[in-house]
């Protein structure tokens, strides 16, 4: 039975999703004082690659699934009419280019089943990895394995992202801030769910020490989602309904661990873990740097969102550019494929830091 309180909560969640899209597109919510750290690295140019650019292969695999390029359309949205259009466009382009895709938090689809179709993208992307998504903290707010299964089923997903967002919840008006005992509940989901679980931050990064605990709990992959891109503290500050939350968001606008540091530190303690680099990646050069540092694939959100609200053609242009940029890096470093890039010494740390 749906109560008035449940209806009110789902309406608030749905409204929040619409506001998130508007704020990300219209307001300055990017980090300014902290960067993703990738600018500290450069590639050594190879003036004689000894390869044909047309032979370069940027295909890869992630969690046993084949990808045409090492790209993840990072989790963004769902739950509203506009979000459904955005997700459909993203899914159709993901299918054409064989890219992985995540959706935004599906909590609203659990609370309001009639919007589940704005997440149900398998019909548009039958052959690519799709990742369901829930906030891990909801496991402390009456959610459990059943709800996790539900969002996986809605998407017909290949994996479930449990996102970790303590700072965002602190800034968010009426945020869910009880994170006590959450690791054991994540472990229970990892054990009982029939698909892999991916632990993901939302823009403040995952440290090596925290990654180690998550992996011990049974998480199959890590999405570092480091600092240097969209600041969700800023986003929540923009929609805060009181001055305290607004000022709190501004104070912590540049909080977090740079993406590059997360990649290298996690890779040092977990050489084989499937690792997603995201957080402030804006073009194919960023993607290539992240791959050379040790990531398996790279996730972008803001560039895909900006293109998706325009048209599917704009998304095609973006993906074609990203592929051209990644391919150009491989060509101009003398690497024929991603595996060669990752095992080369093409990426060096800049002296000016």
Characterization of this structure:
- The chain is of the alpha/beta class and 353 residues long.
- It has one domain (4-349): Aldolase class I (TIM Barrel, Alpha-Beta Barrel), CATH 3.20.20.70.
- It has 14 helices and 12 strands.
- It has an 8-stranded parallel beta barrel, surrounded by 7 helices.
- It is globular and about 60 Å long.
- Involved in the biosynthesis of isoprenoids. Catalyzes the 1,3-allylic rearrangement of the homoallylic substrate isopentenyl (IPP) to its allylic isomer, dimethylallyl diphosphate (DMAPP).
Provide a brief overview of the structure.
This protein is an alpha/beta fold and 353 residues long. 43% of the residues lie in helices and 13% in strands. The protein has helices spanning 4-26, 81-97, 107-111, 145-155, 166-171, 182-192, 208-216, 232-238, 243-251, 259-269, 284-293, 302-308, 312-331, 338-342, and strands at 41-43, 60-62, 65-67, 71-73, 100-102, 130-135, 159-164, 197-201, 221-223, 275-278, 297-300, 347-349.
Arithmetic mean of pLDDT: 95
Residue ranges: pLDDT <50 for 5 or more in a row? Answer: none
Question: Compute the gyration radius: what is it?
Answer: 19 Å
CATH-defined topology = TIM Barrel
Between the first and last Cα atoms, what is the distance in angstroms? 59 Å
Q: Enumerate how many helices there are, as a single number.
A: 14
E-strand count: 12
CATH superfamily: Aldolase class I
Oligomer status: single chain
Order the strands across the largest sheet as they lie in space: 4-5-6-7-8-9-10-11
**How does the major sheet shape up?**
8 strands, parallel, barrel
Shape: globular
Query: Helix fraction?
Result: 40-55%
CATH architecture: Alpha-Beta Barrel
Number of domains: 1
Strand content: 5-15%
**SSE order, as H and E?**
HEEEEHEHEHEHHEHEHHHEHEHHHE
Subunit structure: Homooctamer. Dimer of tetramers.
GO molecular function: isopentenyl-diphosphate delta-isomerase activity
Cofactor: FMN; NADPH; Mg(2+)
Keywords: Cytoplasm, Flavoprotein, FMN, Isomerase, Isoprene biosynthesis, Magnesium, Metal-binding, NADP
């Amino acid at each position: 039975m749906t109560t008035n309180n449940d209806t009110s909560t789902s309406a608030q969640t749905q409204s929040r999703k619409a506001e998130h899209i508007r704020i990300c597109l219209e307001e300055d919510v990017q980090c300014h004082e902290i960067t993703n750290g990738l600018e500290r690295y450069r590639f050594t140019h190879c003036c004689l690659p000894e390869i044909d650019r047309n032979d370069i292969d940027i295909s890869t695999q992630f969690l046993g699934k084949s990808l045409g390029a090492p790209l993840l359309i990072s989790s963004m949205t769902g739950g509203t009419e506009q979000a459904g259009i955005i997700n459909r466009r993203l899914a159709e382009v993901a299918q054409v280019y064989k890219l992985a895709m995540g959706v935004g938090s599906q909590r609203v689809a659990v609370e309001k089943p009639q919007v589940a179709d704005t997440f149900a993208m398998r019909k548009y992307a039958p052959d690519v990895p799709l990742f369901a998504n829930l906030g891990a903290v909801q496991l402390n707010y009456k959610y459990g394995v059943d709800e996790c299964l539900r969002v996986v089923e809605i998407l017909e997903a290949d994996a479930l992202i449990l996102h970790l967002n303590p700072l965002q919840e602190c800034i968010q008006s009426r945020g869910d801030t009880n994170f006590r005992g959450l690791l054991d509940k994540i472990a229970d989901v990892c054990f009982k769910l029939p698909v892999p679980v991916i632990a993901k931050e939302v823009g403040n990064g995952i440290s090596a020490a925290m990654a180690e605990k998550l992996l011990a709990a049974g998480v199959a992959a890590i999405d570092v989602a480091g600092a240097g891109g969209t600041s969700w503290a800023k986003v929540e500050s923009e929609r805060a309904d009181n001055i305290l939350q607004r000022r709190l968001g501004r104070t912590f606008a540049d909080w977090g661990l740079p993406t590059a540091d997360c990649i290298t530190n996690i890779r040092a303690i977990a050489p084989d873990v499937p690792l997603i680099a995201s957080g402030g990646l804006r073009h194919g050069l960023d993607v290539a740097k992240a791959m050379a540092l040790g990531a398996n694939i790279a996730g972008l959100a803001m560039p895909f969102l900006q293109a998706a609200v325009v048209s599917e053609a704009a998304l095609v242009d973006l993906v074609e550019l990203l592929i051209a940029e990644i391919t150009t890096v491989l060509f101009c470093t003398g690497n024929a494929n991603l595996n060669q890039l990752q095992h080369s010494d093409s990426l060096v740390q800049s002296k000016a830091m």
